[in-house]
Amino acid sequence: MRILSGIQPSGALHIGNYFGMMRPAIALQAEGEALYFIADYHALTTVRDPETLRANSRRVALDFLACGLDPERATLFRHSDVPQVTELAWILSTVAPMGLLERAHSYKDKLARGMAPTVGLFNYPVLMAADILIYDSDVVPVGKDQKQHIEMTRDLAVKINETFGQVFKLPEPRINPQTQVVPGLDGQKMSKSYGNNIDIFGDEKEARKRVMSIVTDSTPIEAPKDPEGSTIVQLYSLFATKDELANMREQFKKGGTGYGDFKKELFEKLWEYFAPMRQRRQEILRDKSYIDNVLSKGAKRANEIADQVMERVRKAVGLR
Ligand code: TYM
Fold first, then answer.
1. Which of 2, 4, 7 is the best mutation target for the ligand 1 pocket, counting ligand atoms within 8 Å of the beta carbon and taking the most?
2. Which of 212, 214, 289, 301 is 20 to 30 A from 95 via CA?
């Protein structure tokens, strides 16, 4: 089984990225050949400063490694170290129906938030399909927001197979129902672009301030509170044991405890959860060449697979 996923270096990673994709991806590295990449070509659709893009890309590598990605088992590489993927994106774009891309939720959402409708933004799902298909991927661990993109990947693979014969495998999304949409401070999906994020490796004071700013209703301290749909409870469930979670839910229903105290409990758990990863991150930072070595080894392996698949594709469509 080949497992593949990507993450955009468009800013610091948050706990939605961690529980939605990084943790499941790290668990899967024991189950097959795993390839994970830093999607810098994709990030070009939003990041316009070259130094920022370079720094963010290194930071994603550092954070992913600190969270437990094992470079002895999984391949970690930069998207742009495999430029053949842009050639495949072109080939896929020649069969991609405009209507399919026009229906993309993420594109419509970005336009609704005021982003300029560039061709790159519109074509994003085609490049993402190329990212997946160029490695003959079987399984793609992602959060729910990426589900439609993987369905589009399958549609494009089918179009190519129908037109040119059997070229591509059809990949399956792997979405964990418990963590498919991690809520942010306002209860909406956590996202850097919504400004409702809690970062994995943020500063302690800032992280505490963010947790304390989770939006709640105005139920008074002494009154019972509804744990269903509470963002505090939802986030707490990511870090707490079953008993701890049951206890918080009880305290909610009983009344007598204010939201502020629940938020403090959530912050303590969250901070403690990432403590070993913060330590590992410091260790990695001490070895100046570690990240470069991991990325160059990763690029080599990713290129081997991509070259093989591209030979098959070029032959099938008549470019060789
Ligand atoms: P990106 O960089 O926005 O997010 C990386 C991963 O984190 C997941 N995620 C979440 N999961 C649950 N709750 C949340 N609040 C949350 N926020 C983010 C995302 O679902 C994603 O899995 N297009 C992709 C990157 C990409 C890719 C690929 C992924 C490019 N090519 C090929 C898989 C395969 C993206 O923008 O993810």
1. 7
2. 301
